[in-house]
TrEMBL record:
CDD domains: ERI-1_3'hExo_like. Residues 41-211 form the Exonuclease domain. Residues 1-21 are annotated as: Disordered. The keyword Transmembrane helix does not apply. This is ERI1 exoribonuclease 3 isoform X13. It comes from Equus przewalskii.
């Protein structure tokens, strides 16, 4: 998933961006989302965009897409800063499913894609640890929602990139694209565009021979 730190985006409203990547023997899922967070003066932070790309572990091509906007329930009104940063306007979240409903649809999508089969291994890929270590479990705890086991392990693309390239991408996706001579896709802080950038970076590193491994510690 592609994500930025709360300090970088002000924290009020961000898309959750994420992805799932599959490679032998596991498909990867890119997972960045957009959320509204505490550093924008709102607590708790709330996910407002939930995108996931499923990648083929052998070709690293996109096989399937999950993308929904999420109606924030604690702070239903987006701030002007949130809209300016993410490109998400109020009309895009009004009347959309709640996080609970979106998570139910994620589970349905995972099942449809065969990713819940115990014989199929897959793992999420995020741009940083924040999305799955802090943001999603924090909002789920606030709302009294369970966190599915498949959200409890992931690959931090920043760490993978630093292992492969020998330097830390301080500015996240922008630095990784620059270091790999890739053109940035779409708009920064757009969840679905961040997913596409994550997928492109992974594909490039894989073609250079880098082998991805889980970076998160067990919960």
């Amino acid at each position: 998933m592609a994500t930025a730190s709360p300090a970088a985006d002000g924290g009020r409203g961000r898309p959750w961006e994420g992805g799932l990547v599959s490679w032998p023997p596991a498909p990867p899922l890119t997972l960045p989302w957009t959320w509204m967070g505490p550093s924008w003066g709102q607590h708790p932070g709330e996910i407002i965009e939930f995108p996931i790309l499923k990648l083929n572990g052998r070709t690293m091509e996109i096989e399937s897409t999950f993308h929904m906007y999420v109606q924030p329930v604690v702070h239903p009104q987006l701030t002007p800063f949130c809209t300016e940063l993410t490109g998400i306007i109020q009309a895009m979240v009004d009347g959309q499913p709640s996080l609970q409903q979106v998570l139910e649809r994620v589970d349905e999508w995972m099942a449809k894609e065969g990713l819940l089969d115990p014989n199929v291994k897959s793992i999420f890929v995020t741009c940083g640890d924040w999305d799955l270590k802090v943001m999603l479990p924090g909002q789920c705890q606030y709302l009294g929602l369970p966190v599915a086991d498949y959200f409890k392990q992931w690959i931090n693309l920043k760490k993978a990139y630093s292992f492969a390239m020998g330097c830390w991408p301080k500015n996240g996706l922008l630095d990784m694209n620059k270091g790999l001579s890739l053109q940035h896709i779409g708009r920064p802080h757009s969840g679905i565009d961040d997913c596409k950038n994550i997928a492109n970076i992974m594909k490039t590193l894989a073609y250079r021979g880098f082998i991805f491994k889980q970076t998160s510690k067990p919960f």
